[in-house]
Structure formats: structure tokens, C-alpha cells
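request received
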Amino acid sequence: MATANIEVSETPLVLYALRRADDALILGHRLSEWCGHAPAMEEDMALANMGLDLLGQARELYTYAAKVEGRGNDEDKFAYLRDVRQYRNLLLVEQPNGDFARTMVRQFFYAAFADLYWRAMMASSDPTFAAIAAKSEKESAYHLRHSSEWIVRLGDGTEESHRRAQDAIDDLWAYTGEMFAVDDGERGLIDAGIAIDPAALKSRWLKAVTGIVNEATLALPKSDWMQQGGRVGSHSEHLGHLLSELQSLQRTFPGATW
Amino acid sequence: MYTQALNSSDGDDRRVEDVARASQFQARIDADERIEPNDWMPAAYRKTLTRQISQHAHSEIVGMLPEGNWITRAPSLRRKAALLAKVQDECGHGLYLYAAAETLGTSREELVDGMLSGKAKYSSIFNYPTLTWADIGTIGWLVDGAAIMNQIPLCRCSYGPYARAMIRVCKEESFHQRQGFEIMVTLCRGTAEQKAMAQNALDRWWWPVLMMFGPPDQVSQHSDTSTKWKIKRFSNDELRQKFIDATVPQAEFLGLTIPDPGMKQNENGSWVHSPIDWDEFKQVLAGNGPCNRDRLAARRKAHEEGAWVREAAMAYAEKRKSRQLAQAAE
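response:
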């Protein structure tokens, strides 16, 4: 017997925290899949490091969501007892690791956004968000630096690494638009000074990304068609498999404490 | 960690190059001085240490796999973060130990190739599978516990870089050991299913963990020289006994039964175990453990699939260097 999914009262503030928590958890989980299998030991260390940062961010954000919601949910209930339709992360972060180039491009696109996002969120009128942002900003800055360096090495490395990096950019590009989307609930939080408007970050994000991509002798796709859906639970097929692994013990032994 | 079982000689290389230097060297060791990379040392000392430290490093790196097997399935976010951090620590130990081995004059690439080709050994314990979450607790509790028994004396090893590496590694290992024991406490206080999971893990890991200390003293090779050089300070059986005596009360505390019905306490209070199946140990060392093939295949796959990444990094570094040279020439 599997434990039933929890119910979540998705008020705008709860939902806002959950969306960012899910981004961090799912991307952190993806990075943790590399552990023991990376191209070099130094990279095993770095990927685990970034995974741990993201896991830490997720835990703080879930804990805050639980507090705001006030229904007795907690970080583990949010992570382990919601099904794929209840997850609110960006489609980008759930994309499979693929080869190292794909993992790094995914990290780069996300970190280039997260770096700007958390820095801006340090000015949030919500003290908890501001505090989480102050910590996450430092971590994201490192993630961006690390992934940028790899994009340049891979793009300007060998023919093979160039091809793999370009393929990854071409395939993941359509998942970047979702980072800048805002719905009505979030608009209210932006107006209240709790959240920041991600659309205002877009030109700086594009400039930063273009700079690195050019330095790497790579190119961004011309297409501006963007996939959406993660924020409302319309995910790719990949997320369900990730969750079935992530949640297996909690689902197999309902109610047990670990 | 995990080198006690591995310090077997693979050849007779005890020719002493220079009698006077050798006796000076031994006098330094006898005076508890530390030997440093640039000091003169007998070739056999260098060889023994290179083998031991690199086997230790390989064990850390291969040891990432059985526990890594549960990172994506850890049952809470706190456990997930702790496990990921632990496996990352092991990688750090591996890097640190390869660096210590390199001070003896063999490159990390060469040492790693020895492991990937199957020529160099790593600890037999990592050739057993992690089947349930309780295995993660048991590995922390017993495998790291046994490793600490081995490593505490190595903090006083005569070779400076190894001894210093061990001091840092031991600190982290004892943290891992406590974490593992805490997982076991939680399971044993949990549901009947969780307690049964914990007992089953102990049943499967107990004997392989005892084997980690290596063959019994009567048949252990190479110990005399290692003892004389103060690389090894306790015999396999002494360490095994210390470990058992420390572990029995912990198992009692957990309410778990050590899977050795014949185990008895002697008049000194020590627990005397039943005979160990050394044939199993030999089989595992010979490559026939349940996971030997999987472990090596996983390491080789990571190495091979990472080749293009490492090549790209090299190619980029070369390009950058030549661009800088060209710029400087302008």
C-alpha cells in the first residue's frame, strides 16, 4: 500500500516557495546522480558540492513553505509525498543528465539565472526569503563560475566536446523561457515587494549567457519557441521516473521514520 | 581506510642499497622520526608504502559506489544530504591519498590505471552489494568503524604525508561512523520491518567486515617489515579483536544479534569469534565477490565516458597557453 499524496494549500506565497524549492531539489537530485561516476575525481567533488548546496536551499524553502502553509506538512512530506502533477519545478531542471556537456549546459543556464535571481531577492521585503537569498546567492555565484568555465573548455576544447556542447545548448534552449514567466499569483507577490520580477533579469541573463557562449565559440539557437508547464505540474516524462526513485522508501514503508 | 587486509608482498624487493644509509634510516624510525618525501628511504619502503597508500586511495574511490547506490533513494532530505556529503568525503580522501602516494614518485594516472586494469587491489568489503537502506547504516557503523580501528594507528605511521592524511581522514571517518550508528538506532527504534531490515544487514555484513582486518596473524605475510618500519603497529588479529570488543556492546544496545551463535566471552572479557570463512575472503580478493565485476565496470565506464571531457580540458588549456604566448610575443 502506498501512502497517499499530501494535500497542499497552494496560496501564492506557499506556491512561490514550493516552486523554488522544487527547482533546487530536482536539480540537486540530478547532480547527485553523478556521484561516483564523474569524468574526473575533482568533478565528482564539484558536482556533489553543487548538489549539496541545492539540497540545502530546497530544505530551507520547503521548511518555509510548511511554516507559511501551517497544515503540518514539512520538508519531507513535500519532497516525498507529492506526485508528479503536484511538483512545481522548471522543466529545465528535470531534464536527464545526459553526457557531461548536457549536465553543464543545464547547470549554466540555471545558474546564470539563479545568480541574478537570488541577488535581487536579497532585497525581498520577506525576511526569510531575503535570508535564504543571501546564502543562495553566494552558492549560485560559484555554480555559475564553475559551469561557465566548463562551457568555455568544452566549446573551445576538441571537435567532439564542441559538438556535444552545441547539441546540449540546442536541446535545452527551449526550457530557458520558463524561468522568466510570471502568473497572477506571483504578480501579486511582486507588487508587494516579496518577490522580484524575473522578466527584469532577462536582458542581463541573456547578455551573461551570450558572453560565455561566444567565448566558447558556440552559438545560441535562433528559435524563440519556449516550452512551459513545469510551474503548473505539466512535466516532461522524465520527472515521474526521478520521483519514483526519490520516493521509493517513503512509498514502500508508509509512515515509517528514517 | 581498509588497507590492513592488503599489505601483502607481491615480490621480494628487500635488497638494501646502502647498508650505512639503511641503518641510519632505521635509527630514525626507531627514534620515532617522520620520514618525508625528499628523505632517503629504502626502495622496498617506498614500494610498500606506494602500494599501501594507493590501495587505500582505490578503496576510497571504489567505496563511493556501494553507498552512492542509495543517494538517489535516501529516505529523507536530511539523510540524503548526509549521505551525499559522506560519499563526497570519500572522494576527497581518495584525492588526498593519491596525492600522498604521488610524493613517493608514482603519478596518480599510473596508480589509477593499475586499479582500472584490475592489477591493483582495493578493499574486499566493497565487493558486497547494498540491498537496503539498513546497509547504509551498517556500512557507517561497522565498515567505517573497522576502518577507524585500522587508521588510528596509521596516524603515527613513519611516513609523514601518509600519517598527516590519516589524521584528517580519521576525523571524518569517526563522524561517518556516528552517522551510521544513528541510522541503525533509528531503524531499531522504528517499525518491526525496519528492525528486521537492520538485523538482516548486520547478518550480511558482519563476517565480511571481520575479514577487512586481513588474514589471521599466523598466515599474514609482510607484517614483520611493516612493523619494523612502523607502518603497521598492530597485528590483524589484535585489531580485529579490538573491533569486536567495541562492537558487541553496540549491537546489544541496538537490540541486534551478532550472527555468530558460537561467540563466547573469555576470562579477560574479550569476545572470541567462531572461525572465519577465509575461502570466501580469497574468492573475493581473486575477483569472485558478488560485485567485483560491477564495481570495476562502473569505474571503467566513468573513466572511459569521461575521456572526451578530460581531453577537451587539456586541449583548451593548450590553446590558452599558446594564445598567451602569442600575445606575449606581440
